[in-house]
Amino acid sequence: MRLPLLLLTLLATACNTRPAQETTSTPPPSARTAPDAQLRETHWVLRQLAGQPVTVPADTREAYLTLRADGTAEGNGSCNRFRGSYFSEKPGELTFTPLMSTRMSCPAIATENAFTGALAQARAYRISGDTLRILDATNTAVARLEAVYLH
């Protein structure tokens, strides 16, 4: 009589036991956030102007901007290369001198003119991850660019 009682007790205990990892709660994995891209020496590709997506017509280049450590701003508006200077003396501040460029025409000339116009309006910037927003005097985003890393 003792043997069946002992067997029943062992079986009941074995059925109620859970492995240690199931009984302890593990915290959720922490969200990994990438560091913000650097304003200078980053290849910034234009993605939006005044909140509207930028499309690249066939046989034209993506518009981009690169701000060099020496204060030089250079890029391509889709049709023409441009160059000038920029100032960013305080965190979040960004202004450009008038940009010089070549004057060729192409199907994306309207986008190019809007891009260089947005740069002329720049007074500030915000970087979040790989996104650069160029802001005007009213803190409205006039352009959104994305960091593209060249290998």
From TrEMBL:
Taxonomic superkingdom: Bacteria
DUF306 domain ranges (all copies): 37-145
Coiled-coil annotated spans: none
Signal as UniProt keyword: yes
Database matches in Pfam families: META
Signal sequence, renumbered to the chain: 1-20
Alphabetically ordered keywords of this record: Signal
This protein's name: META domain-containing protein
